[in-house]
Amino acid sequence: xPDLGIKYLGLDLKSPxxxxxxxxxxxxxxxxxxxKAGAGAVVLKSVFEEEIYLEYAHEFEKLxxxxxxxxxxxxxxLEIRKENLKHYLQLIxxxxxxxxxxxxxxxxxxxxxxxxxxxxxxxxxGADAIELNMFLSPTNLxxxxxxxxxxxxxxxxxxxxxxxxPVSVKISPYFSNLGGxxxxxxxxxxxxxxxxxxxYSPDIDIAKETIHGSxxxxxxxxxxxxxxxxxxxxxxxxxDLASSTGVHTWETAVKMILAGSQAxxxxxxxxxxxxxxxxxINREIAQWMTIHNYEKIDNFRxxxxxxxxxxxxxxxxxxxxxxxxxxxTGQ
Length: 331
Ligand SMILES: Cc1cc2nc3c(=O)[nH]c(=O)nc-3n(C[C@H](O)[C@H](O)[C@H](O)COP(=O)(O)O)c2cc1C
Description:
single chain; alpha/beta; two-stranded antiparallel sheet; 12 helices; 13 strands; globular; binds flavin mononucleotide
């Protein structure tokens, strides 16, 4: 039987399949079912930076104007009074008590402001790692891309200074120099980068001439974007890469690992198919490894990354031009 064990963020995982952050990872019942299905780790639903502010607003108000600066707040041990954050920390503690797989907490953040102390509380509650879900919407036209990007590094530095557990970041593909950002983040002390977060975009109903919701869940071809970037970056980074978005089949999970992913995160497919999908991926990857004579995941990880590919340009634009140039109708 092949060994599906891997290392991710320095943690030992018995499978490369991680249940990504969503409402499915928000209760202990679900977390136990996810573990039972064979997940290597679980990322809890994110706490939003705004939630942290809201719950601590009364504490901030008590501070005088001189105290109301970031450095002071960093060292001010704010008491948790309200329920949401208490529940979140309790979920971490319960998950650690009842599960044997690593539990990764998640914070959705957009600024490097006062919320950093909450990362410490997450660590104290027992989380094995923290995933920062970062997305600074590039819609503020007065902000330069440099300003925008430096906020990412401010957040990383602030959180990394506060905790000793591994920190990873989940980012979007929306950067002017995506490759450079992935590389620079990987050298910032971070232990892993998750490529990519997926965003909900509204659609337009042309009959009613109104704006309406579009699909919250990904499609199975959405995997091509993270696949390409994992393949292009996996040999150029100083941390683990995990893929997220569009892993709807076990074959896609194998492709992500061949491209260089340390682990794959699944969310939409769990909504579509249930937690049994994790079991299916593990079983089918093991069977595929047996057929291809691989004893360990490490034996084939990155085999088809850009660096290891016979034709490295295959992941670059030149192939794009070639495909379009040779495309004929009816193909
Ligand atoms: C219903 C739902 C809730 C989600 N909630 C979170 C969240 O709280 N934090 C987060 O980082 N990502 C969240 N995500 C994004 C997923 O973790 C994942 O990055 C994204 O759905 C792409 O992966 P997929 O194609 O496997 O769904 C959510 C996704 C869905 C569908």
